[in-house]
Amino acid sequence: MGSKVRVGIVDQHPLFRDGIVYNLEAQPDIEVVGLGGTARDAIQIAQEKRPDVLVMDSEIPGSMGVIEEIALAFPTVMILMLTSTGDDEQICAALKQGVRGCIAKGTTSRELVQTVRTLSQGEHYVSPSIAAKLLMRSSITKPAPEPRSDRFSDLTQREEQILSILIEGRSNKEIGNKLDLSEKTIKHHVTNILQKLQVRNRVEAALLASDRTPRRLTPLASPRSRTSTHFA
Length: 232
Hints:
The chain has 10 helices and 6 strands. By secondary structure, it is an alpha/beta fold. Residues 148-213 form the HTH luxR-type domain. GO terms for molecular function: DNA binding. Keywords: DNA-binding, Phosphoprotein.
């Protein structure tokens, strides 16, 4: 087994924090390296422990300012925000300031563990329920875009297909399973999609895609066999 995913946890409620520790340390590939309950603790853990993933409670006083500070000073620390309020404005602001993942405090331990693993690989993740709210908010409140060149015109048919699934909040692994492609191949396609759409992450790509009228896609040929091997 390779090196473990190193995780820092900052939550102002000791009982809830202990629950996160219990669920993460039960995994053989995850190690908790720092605990805290304040914004200052978050900075100290990021500076001294350099965890792969830093789990932060969105309700900690000063958390928003600290998120941006950590994202700028320690770009290798992936910040996972836990929210209980579902505040759309706060979530959007956090994603712009450097948060790499966002899940609700009422999530399952399985989603928590999988999200930590996803972020440790450099990917973004937003719970489908939260992503759906952000997409709905965007479609209602965002003004009509000014005429501009269609960024989507450069997407290949496969990239269009992957983008349509990415909007659902699926991880690279889940997209790969659905399309019978390797996770590495999906990651390559997603990177190309972000570059062509001129966005920084998957969430921005999903929000941008939600604002346009989807063009009709020609169905791709079905995989020949689930036993075939896909090379990246």
